[in-house]
């Protein structure tokens, strides 16, 4: 306060001073000041070193031989003055909870953002490692440690970029890039499962144009959800899109790639580019509920494409749709935030004695036993049965909901089916909701109880599918409870 103001203050008429003191000290003063949202974003390079394992759980990918495009952890931090939240989308196939927890702990120490307010997810690009804690080679262990530090660094840097911001919501649609991959087949088309059991009525990824196709077993969600963040002057700050397609693929063997998720980010970044890009605008595509969907139109012939072409085309279509919707989005700066997490204890579908005996037989074939030679699938699932035998009877998983104004973002550590995501959108108490799958850990596929009865790849017990058959029902209702909790805050 300078001298002139001081003098003026002294001269305030008593009546005016009284009025002012009433305003300043009235109970209304207890009310929070108008929220001024702040946001910051940053991108952290998480590319693995050549030679580290580039695969998933049962995919058994070999070592990375070439980097086609770099992998990133894309980070957004939001702060309403009372609550801070962070959302991180990583170009990885999946990430175990040990790694996400360790990264959150480091980030919390550096920024003060509570670990339970941080969501860290994998996009499910298949051109990347699945960080699943199974590999003990020095280079893979080094990569896990590197990853934890780089994720935490990204959150810390996004936090340091916090600046006055506005948030808006948009909804687009891309119905031509997503198909349900689980099919009911005509009589006699389904072979016994890898355990030699008959009676399943679903085939995952059937042959294209097969005369035996009946109809898809589940829905798809064509919505492209858009959470847009702008600086207070209207420049783009960050954008999180959400779409439910498993991944696109079409890589060259041994190559590392962020798949269409990475191409989408660069496309949106160039479509929305402005003269000022300091700090850089960060776009990201989070994976929605895509456990039973992919980009294959089973009723049309395959059109030939060179490596990398398909993912670029899909990314371009989605980026154009986001760009179209972006122009209509209204942004506001007076939104409040809240976040909630819960732990849910779920049973594990452990192998029974009969399955273990079958698995041991498959793993130790006699010279005259041709079963193993003619069906390597049996060997994979036998090994998986033995691995599941070592699992505890129950596991605890983390579920999460974050509210940004009237937008709900939920995190589930599974490959969630489209049906579950659609149900959560419909039943959410918030106006706009989307789910990020493979968030805060990795607990495999999440078929519905009905899908477990029907069978198919996603239900076959393995380290990629082991939660109890009621897990989907329990997870869906726990996530809805979290949404109600954050909506009420
Ligand atoms: Zn998958």
Mean pLDDT: 91
Q: Helix segment count?
A: 12
* Rg, alpha carbons: 25 Å
Oligomerization category of the chains in this entry: single chain
Strand order of the largest sheet: 6-4-3-1-8-13-14-16
Low-confidence region ranges: 1-12, 20-32
Helix content: 25-40%
The major sheet is characterized as: 8 strands, mixed
The N- to C-terminal Cα distance equals 38 Å
Morphology call: globular
- Which hetero compounds are present in the coordinates? zinc ion
Beta-strand residue fraction: 25-35%
Class by SSE composition: alpha/beta
Work out the number of β strands.
Answer: 23
Can you tell me about this structure?
There is one protein chain. This protein is an alpha/beta fold and 489 residues long. Among the domains are: 38-179 and 216-336, no CATH class; 351-389, no CATH class. The chain contains twelve helices and 23 strands. The strands form seven sheets. An eight-stranded mixed beta sheet has the order 6-4-3-1-8-13-14-16. β13 (223-231) and β14 form a beta hairpin. The protein is globular, with a radius of gyration of 25 Å. The model is unreliable at 1-12 and 20-32 (pLDDT under 50).
Quick take:
The chain has twelve helices and 23 strands.
């Amino acid at each position: 306060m300078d001298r002139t103001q001081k003098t003026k203050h002294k001269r305030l008429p008593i009546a005016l001073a009284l009025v002012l003191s009433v305003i300043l000290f009235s109970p209304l003063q207890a009310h929070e000041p108008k929220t001024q949202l702040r946001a910051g974003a940053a991108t952290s390079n998480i590319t693995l070193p050549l030679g580290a394992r580039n695969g998933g759980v049962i995919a058994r990918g070999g070592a990375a031989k070439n980097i086609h495009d770099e992998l990133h952890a894309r980070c957004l931090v939001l702060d309403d003055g009372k609550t801070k939240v962070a959302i991180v989308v990583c170009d990885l196939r999946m990430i175990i909870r040990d790694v996400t927890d360790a990264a959150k702990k480091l980030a919390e120490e550096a920024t003060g953002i509570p670990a339970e307010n941080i969501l860290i997810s994998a996009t499910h690009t298949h051109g990347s490692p699945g960080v699943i804690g199974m590999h003990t080679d020095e280079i893979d262990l080094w990569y896990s440690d590197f990853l934890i530090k780089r994720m935490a660094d990204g959150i810390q840097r996004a936090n340091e970029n916090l600046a006055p911001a506005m948030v808006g919501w948009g909804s687009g649609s891309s119905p031509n890039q997503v198909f349900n991959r689980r099919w009911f087949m005509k009589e006699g088309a389904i072979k016994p499962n890898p355990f030699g059991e008959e009676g399943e009525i679903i085939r995952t990824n059937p042959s294209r144009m097969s005369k035996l196709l009946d109809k898809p077993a589940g829905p798809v969600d064509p919505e492209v959800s858009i959470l847009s963040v702008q600086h207070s002057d209207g420049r783009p700050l960050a954008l999180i899109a959400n779409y439910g397609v498993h991944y696109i693929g079409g890589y060259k063997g041994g190559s590392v790639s962020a798949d269409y998720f990475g191409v989408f980010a660069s496309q949106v970044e160039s479509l929305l580019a402005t003269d000022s890009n300091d700090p850089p605008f960060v776009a990201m595509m989070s994976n929605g509920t895509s456990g039973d969907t992919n980009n294959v139109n089973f009723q049309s012939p395959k059109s030939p494409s060179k490596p990398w072409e398909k993912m670029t085309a899909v990314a371009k279509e989605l980026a154009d749709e986001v760009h179209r919707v972006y122009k209509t989005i209204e942004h506001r700066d007076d939104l409040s935030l809240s976040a909630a997490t819960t732990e849910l204890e779920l049973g594990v579908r452990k192998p029974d004695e009969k399955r273990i005996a079958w698995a041991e037989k498959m793993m130790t074939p006699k010279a005259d036993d041709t079963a193993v030679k003619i069906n390597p699938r049996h060997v994979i699932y036998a090994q998986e049965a033995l691995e599941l035998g070592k699992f505890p009877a129950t596991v605890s998983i983390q579920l999460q909901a974050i509210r940004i104004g009237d937008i709900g973002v939920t995190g589930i550590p599974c490959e969630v089916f489209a049906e579950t995501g659609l149900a959560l959108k419909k039943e959410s108490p918030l106006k706009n909701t989307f789910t990020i799958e493979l968030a805060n850990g990795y607990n495999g596929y999440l078929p519905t109880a009905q899908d477990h009865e029907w069978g198919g790849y996603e239900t076959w017990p393995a380290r990629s599918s082991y939660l109890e058959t009621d897990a989907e029902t329990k997870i869906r209702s726990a996530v809805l409870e979290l949404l109600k909790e954050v909506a009420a805050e």
